Amino acid sequence: MNSFETVDEAWQALQTDDAEARAAAIVFLGDSRYAPAVPQLAELVRQADPGTRYLAAKALGQIGDEAEAALPALLAALRGDDMFLRAAITGALIKIGPPAVPGLTRALFDPSSAVKRAACKALGRIGSERAVPALKFSLRDGNEGVRRFAREALERIDSPAARAALNSG
């Protein structure tokens, strides 16, 4: 792995075709919380190979709320089949926080139970009361795992509305 002294060096490596250098650059930029890299990292989440997509999602999570511009790419990638990538994306969405709530709420209505479980987990960790109505709906999902994750999310939110949803569901 390459080691970088500055974000400029890492940025240069991110632009190359050298997979090892690009991977090291992604890690460095994430560790540095380098927000100007968000558009490039979001593009990698959309189009790169699975390992690079995973590293880019992790880096976006490290950047946190300043990675809000990556939400469309992250939410689209959440629907993929790679469970490791989905876990990294879920972590990034949690760290982005409240701006991710509308997209995660829509994800509760995805055909995939895995996507719905990830959305429930993220919504519970974010703790936004705006998610309560959709999580209440998820208490009646056909998949036991989705119902369990929705219950856990509502328990984590622990607001009067969340408690009422748990008591009525």
Q: Can you describe this structure in just a few lines?
A:
This protein is an all-alpha fold and about 170 residues long. The protein has helices at about 5-15, 20-30, 40-45, 50-65, 70-75, 85-95, 100-105, 115-125, 130-140, 145-155, 160-169.
Note the main sheet.
Answer: none
For the residues shown, what is the average pLDDT? 94
Give the H and E element order: HHHHHHHHHHH
Name the beta content range.
under 5%
Total number of β-strand segments? 0
Identify low-pLDDT runs.
none
Helical proportion? 55-70%
Q: Overall 3D geometry?
A: elongated
Oligomer: single chain
Distance between the termini: 51 Å
Structural class, from secondary structure content?
mainly alpha
Any idea what the radius of gyration is? 17 Å
Can you count the helices? 11
Folded structure, characterized:
With 169 residues, the protein is mainly α. The protein has eleven helices and no strands. The chain has helices at residues 7-14, 19-31, 38-47, 50-63, 71-77, 83-96, 101-107, 113-126, 132-138, 144-157, 160-168. Helix 3 (38-47) packs antiparallel against helix 4 (50-63), helix 5 packs antiparallel against helix 6 and helix 6 runs parallel beside helix 8 (113-126). It starts with 6 loop residues before the first helix and ends with a helix.
